[in-house]
Design goal:
Layout lengths: L1 H28 L1 E6 L11 H6 L4 E6 L13 E6 L8 H12 L3 E6 L12 H5 L4 E7 L5 E2 L14 E5 L6 E5 L5 E8 L2 E7 L15 H12 L17 E4 L4 E4 L4 H22 L10 E5 L5 E3 L3 E5 L10 H15 L9 H15 L3 H16 L18 H18 L3 H12 L10 H12 L4 H6 L14 H6 L8 H8 L16
Parallel strand pairs: 1-2, 1-3, 3-4, 4-10, 12-13, 13-15
Antiparallel strand pairs: 5-7, 6-8, 8-9, 9-10, 11-12, 14-15
Helix pairs in contact: 6-7, 6-8, 7-8, 8-9, 8-10, 9-10, 11-12
This protein binds zinc ion (ZN).
The site of zinc ion has 4 residues, from α7 and α8.
Length: 514
């Protein structure tokens, strides 16, 4: 009995110890990762690095603002990544990275040598110089080979470049190329760990669909971040660009690195806005366009409705102006069309309005050649614009998705030069949340038909685009009343009915108004 009870007690004690140990192990492996997108805005902005390599052992937040102003207290892993970008690592940034390492943080510098325009420095090398490493403009030769801890791992990659180390003996080489050149290496700095690696070793696809190397990167990141414990209850924060300048139309947000672009980009926005409003024929939707965020990239932009993000050196800005006009307009139009994105031409019309804005701002040559280029591109796949179905077709090439709508609006513009204005004015009146929960392709052709004062369904079907007015909730008498137009009394209505047009019928009035 005694024996029995003491062994039971021992069992409880053992369990308790095990429990304590496993909790500590979990805490030690907890990762609070900050991915820096302030030097290069990349698609890591949506958290795909964390999804690929950190979750579920931890979380990932993003720093959009000036690096040294970010408070790293609740983080133990910092991911720095840069492509060809003019954004420097300032002495303050380098100091912030150094002190984070000193207190045990893990720092991962992902890069592949690339220069911004005429610059001579790949800026991550300024950051790495004190640590004795630099990215070089030499492609790695596959197959890549794991070394040390990674000796038996398969090493996948996109197009990696190589790294030169001042004192290779100070580093643990983890990945080499077929010619023995470094692709990933690690060394202790202070209580922390510095990992330098080709960006080509990590996935980058949308939806985190390519977690290449995750089987060894996950444990490696746990080891790199293990020098600093974080409190799981104290989540690190996202940091947006911290400088906010209130301008007439909206505030502009930017990091210190983007400051040189702030005035020039706002000036283009200020010039575009009234032109976009004139073309759209309505003001931006309520609550939209409340701030402009400058992004350190040449690669595009985004619209979240309220915020629009703009690539600061898009289209060779500021040397060239047209690209920025088109980009600002494109992203603004995404905000303008709320609450219902365009079902058939959300991207195409955004760029098309950008082209029209460019034309009105005296940039006809650039605007016209952009338009011609798009349409010529689409005609390679759909020579007579009567084949590819933008509504139900599968695998429609991007250029067709973009440019077939541009071609359609160009045809309509010959008939009514203000077709875009008419379309968006009609949409604003008809496509409201009290009437519909979703704006469909069929709805958009009803709206366009009303705008053009004729039934466009047969024409769209002749273009190979399968739309049906009977499927639209907007093709009702009430919709017509709300838009303030008289119901059709015009003889064409009967003519159309005789033609057997599917869009005509008592529940589906024709699209003429007087
Ligand atoms: Zn877009």
């Amino acid at each position: 009995m005694n024996h029995h009870s003491s062994s039971k007690l021992l069992g409880v004690v053992c369990l308790l110890i095990l429990f304590v140990v496993s909790v500590e192990a979990a805490a030690a492996e907890r990762i609070h990762c900050v991915t820096d997108i302030s030097h290069t805005f990349s698609f890591y902005f949506d958290g795909r690095f964390g999804t690929n390599y950190v979750a579920p052992d931890g979380i990932d937040v993003r720093n959009w603002g000036t690096l040294h102003k970010y408070d790293l207290a609740d983080a133990n892993l910092l991911i720095l990544q840069s492509s060809a970008s003019p954004c420097r690592y300032t002495p303050e940034d380098i100091e912030a990275v150094r002190s984070f390492l000193a207190e045990g943080g893990g720092v991962v510098v992902l890069g592949d040598f690339a220069l911004f325009r005429e610059e001579e420095t790949y800026h991550p090398n300024t950051l790495l110089k004190p640590f004795g490493a630099r990215f070089v403009d030499v492609a790695a030769q596959k197959p890549l080979q794991g070394e040390g801890d990674l000796e038996h791992e398969d090493i996948a990659s996109y197009s990696p470049k190589t790294i030169t180390l001042d004192e290779p003996d100070d580093w643990r080489i983890l990945v080499e190329d077929a010619r023995g050149r470094v692709v990933m290496a690690n060394k202790a700095v202070g209580k922390g760990q510095l990992l330098v690696a080709s960006r080509g070793l990590c996935g980058h696809n949308p939806n985190a669909s390519d977690p290449i190397n995750d089987q060894w990167l996950r444990p490696l990141l746990r080891r790199v971040s293990a020098g600093k414990q974080v409190d799981p209850s104290r989540r690190p924060r996202h940091q947006m660009p911290e400088n906010l300048t209130q301008r007439d139309r909206l505030p502009v947000r930017y990091s210190d690195y983007m400051k040189p672009y702030a005035d020039a980009i706002y000036e283009v926005y200020d010039q575009c806005f009234p032109v976009i409003e004139e073309i759209m024929g309505v003001p931006p939707s309520e609550g939209m366009l409340t701030s402009l965020i400058l992004l350190p990239t040449g690669g595009g932009g985004f619209s979240s409705g309220a915020n629009i993000g703009l690539a600061a050196w898009w289209g060779n800005f500021p040397e060239k102006r047209y690209g920025m006009v088109e980009l600002i307009t494109h992203e603004s139009v995404h905000s303008w069309v709320h609450p219902f994105p365009e079902p058939i031409w959300n991207e195409g019309i955004a760029t098309y309005v950008g082209i029209l804005t460019g034309m009105k701002l005296g940039l006809e040559t650039d605007a016209q050649s952009t338009l011609d280029g798009w349409i010529a591109g689409a005609k390679r796949y759909d020579p007579n614009m009567d084949k590819l179905d933008l509504v139900h077709g599968e695998n429609i090439p991007h250029v067709v998705r973009m440019a077939k709508p541009m071609w359609i609006f160009e045809q309509l513009r010959k008939e009514k030069p203000d077709v875009v204005t008419r379309y968006f004015q009609t949409k604003r009146k008809l496509a409201t949340r009290d009437r519909i929960t979703q704006y469909t392709a069929d709805d958009s052709i009803v709206v366009l038909s009303i705008a053009m004062q004729r039934d466009l369904f047969p024409w769209f079907r002749s273009l190979g685009i399968t739309v049906d007015s009977k499927q639209s909730q907007l093709a009702t008498d009430r919709a017509f009343k709300d838009v303030g137009w008289a119901l059709p009394t015009n003889p064409n209505r009967d003519a159309n009915r005789e033609n057997g047009s599917g869009s005509v019928g008592s529940a589906h009035p024709t699209f003429f108004y007087e």
